[in-house]
Amino acid sequence: MAGSVDVADSVVRAADGTPLGCRSLGAGPGLVVVHGAMQDGGSQADLAGLLAAGHRVHLVDRRGRGASGPYPRAAGTAVEVDDLRAVLAATGARCVLGVSSGAIIAARTALAHPGMIDRLALFEPPLSVDASMRLDLAPRLDAAVAAGDLATMMGLSLKIAQMGPPWLFGLPVGVLAALSRPMLRSAPRRAQAAALAVDFAVVRDNADRLAEFAAISGSVLLVDCAATRPYLRTAVAGLAAVIPGARRVTLAGHRHGVTQNRDERGRPDVIAPALLDFFG
Q1: Is residue 2 part of a domain?
Q2: DSSP string covering 87-134, please?
Q3: Residue at 94 is within a domain
Q4: Residue-wise pLDDT tens digits, 57-67
Q5: Which domain covers residue 266, as residue numbers?
Q6: Least confident of 71-80, 131-140, 157-166, 178-187
Q7: Fewest beta carbons within 10 Å, which of 149, 172, 193, 205?
Q8: Which residues form the AB hydrolase-1 domain (predicted)?
Q9: The whole model's pTM is what?
Q10: Interval 173-197: pLDDT, tens
């Protein structure tokens, strides 16, 4: 983020009073970015810097991460939708970019509060269509959550979401858990791992419910990557088929991490032009 860009940190209060940390930068119409799993509001900071020339970009920490408070005991899509609604009301923003599981939350918010979002960009929402995701592993994930076993949660999440090279998520869960333990030495990573339970609750809440998204109003941009996992491309294609007037952009040669910061192997410069064209 360039030194000339106006940056401010603030706190938005959720409906239940929980603080939601928000970093805002740039000038112009408001644009809220809703991050995905194993991320926080700062994960799209480089992308926000590219979008800030024409927008006031709001990077929100979803609960359990960064400067935000905890989730309630039972949390899923409804809590996330209420939180995004609070952020939109507080900032006055009418544009939203949802990334991965954050895209499901953004789409659900557009459905629950029609007219609140004018322009909605959805990047690779992990919507399971006809068992396209390994949700058969969800009971094992529930058991790991109940046991507080973050390493096993990470291993199972790699199996379910199929992130990384195919040889990686083809390994046994125990091996994936062992490989995840060094990452969990970092406090922010532990917080992100603990929040995986809610990310997968959102995924499960919305499995095989593609047709419901046909009721989204406003302008919609769907973005996927040509080299991403097949189930993500299936989800985007399905949304393109059911949302009237939705525009689809496919980024050639890239994968699911493209929105992330450069030091996390993201390529924000690749996706920013499509977003600037749509939101501009």
Answers
A1: no
A2: HHHHH---EEEEETHHHHHHHHHHHHSTTS-SEEEEE------SS-S-
A3: yes
A4: 999 999 999 99
A5: 7-130+208-279
A6: 157-166
A7: 172
A8: 31-261
A9: 0.96
A10: 999 999 999 999 999 999 999 999 9
